[in-house]
Amino acid sequence: MNTNRNDSHTVNATDTGDSRPAAATPTALPRAHANGGENPQSSPPSQGLVQISRRQILGAASLAVALAAGAYYFQCVAPYESTDDAFVEGYVIPMASQVPGRVAELLVTDNQPVKAGDVLLKMDPRDYETSLAQARADLAAARSQVNQAQAQVKASEAKVAQARAAVTAAEAENQRAADDLKRYQSVDVTAVSKSALDTAQSQARTASANLEAARSQAKAAAADVTLSEAGVETAAAAVQQSEARVRQAELNLSYTQVTAPEDGQVTRRVVEKGAYIQPGQSLLAIVPRHYWVIANFKETQLTHMRAGQPVEVVVDAYPDHKFSGHVESIQSGAGARFSLFPPENATGNYIKVVQRVPVKIVLDDSPEGGLALGPGMSVAPKVRVK
Fold first, then answer.
1. Residue 209 contacts residue 217 (beta carbons within 8 Å)
2. What CA–CA distances, in Å, run from 19 to 10, 24, 97?
3. Helix (H, G, I), strand (E, B) or coil at 289
4. What percent of the chain shows pLDDT beyond 90?
5. Which residue of 142, 245, 268, 325 could cross-link 285, Cys pair, CB 3.0 to 4.6 Å?
6. Multiple choice CATH, 80-91+286-384, 2.40.30.170, 3.40.640.10, 2.60.120.10, 2.30.40.10
7. Distance between alpha carbon 382 and the CA centroid of its chain, in Å?
8. What is the C-alpha to C-alpha distance for residues 179 and 141, in angstroms, rounded to an integer?
9. For the domain 126-254, what is the CATH superfamily, name and number?
């Protein structure tokens, strides 16, 4: 039956003169659905191959993404420790006057950069100039007293020499009187009158007394020399005191100019021209351009952290600029232990909280010009620990 039907169709096609090949006849076309559509079960094999290749591509892409994510994690995440609990630190030098006085000149403004030795303000120096002149006058008077005491020593030494000469003369006179008395006493009583003997005895006693007086005067003259030498030492001490007062007056005069101790920037200026200031009163502050970072890492992040490890620091104010640095030191103890009121874990209920430990990070490169870094600014450090 089917063979005959096919043959009839072939004959009809030949009779009509259709030159199409047999493969192009309606029998070679896919059978249609009753609703006019093609049968899905009769789709070409190439479409299945396309679907399989797409699944393979998606799987390969997913695997590549996973491998890239893993590589990124192990290369850029796992070897680093970072925290957002970190801030720029630096020295803040408060400036104050060492002497009282009125501000005559104010030579700086807010946030002005200064160099070490620059004069920040000047006070009225007239009182201190007067004190210095008085101290110098007292020094000159003390030096004059030293000269006077030295001259007194020379005069006392001359008196000692004179007293010694008087002792020598008194000894000679005493010896002569004693010899005369011996001669009068050695002759017969009838050969010397009573009055002459009495005179010789009197002269001998007088000469002896004069010798004792001369010796006493020599001792007094020697004591005067010692006293004069002590006067020289006293005058010299007075000179030293006067010199110290002169130096103090010079220092007080120099203190009327408040100078910058280091290179830095003026901050927190509260003084104005004409104000009367007292010693120790805060006038302004100098912030040197030397900064570091204090990063408060969790204690669980310190497992592999060591001093000397490289650090990349990003300041919140300048996210496009990266600073390089290194870990200088790790504090021996959690920050809470050194707070004003440290925790008392031995009392009450206890809840374990991960502590934070301050880590000091030193910047290897100084801030470029125009970057307004300062203590307290937030940063994000990233330490390479592996």
1. no
2. 11, 10, 119
3. coil
4. 46
5. 268
6. 2.40.30.170
7. 26
8. 56
9. Helix Hairpins (1.10.287.620)
